[in-house]
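Recall the central idea of this unit: under ordinary conditions, the amino acid sequence of a chain determines the structure it adopts. In this exercise we apply that idea directly, starting from the sequence alone.
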Amino acid sequence: DAATGAFLWSSSDLGAVIEEEGAVFAPNGDPVIGGESFVARLDAVTGATLWSTPRRCNFGESGATIFGDAVYIVDFPFFDSWRLVRLDLATGARTYFGAELNGIPTGQNQPFCGPDGTVYWPRVVGPPVTALVALEDTGMELRERWSFPMLDTEFHHHGVGSDGSVYTFDVQGRIVRLDPATGSVLHTGPALLDPNRQNRPLTLVDGAGNVYVSNVSSAG
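Accordingly, the structure predicted from this sequence is:
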């Protein structure tokens, strides 16, 4: 309860969930939670599981993202083959997929959506296959719109502005602002990350357009 902090409900055991992923929310407030082996939608009032869809994924990229009536996740259906999958928000059923990637991803970066419905997948397999890929959901498929060579990162949470601008890091560790339509660099900021370390940046953009960045690096 938001007013008192009292427990209103507790969900059934859903499976392993990593704390970095959190939850995303349907328009009516139902939380959608991604785990290593599942994606589930819960009833916001009762906590009941409305649907649970099995999947395979690494921790760190198991989080889901929502736009409209769609849920987007990363899935690993076959060895050495990863893809972005669209689920139906109402039922959890797979509708179609796109943007397949061969190789074992090492970045563990979760997908996210822009305010215009563009789906972004930060794909990291290790240099030189490291890119932020923008995809358009046509209603029949996920079609690649552009790809930007970004820094090799892990557990990376990107920032998106209210105008759709995407904030990521180039291969030199500089923060950059990208045009959502083309992926071209609109502005380049200072080098906040060391390209020689494994970085775990978190970027947030507030309603006024201010950009906040955490430049945490793992040891080594």
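The radius of gyration is 17 Å.
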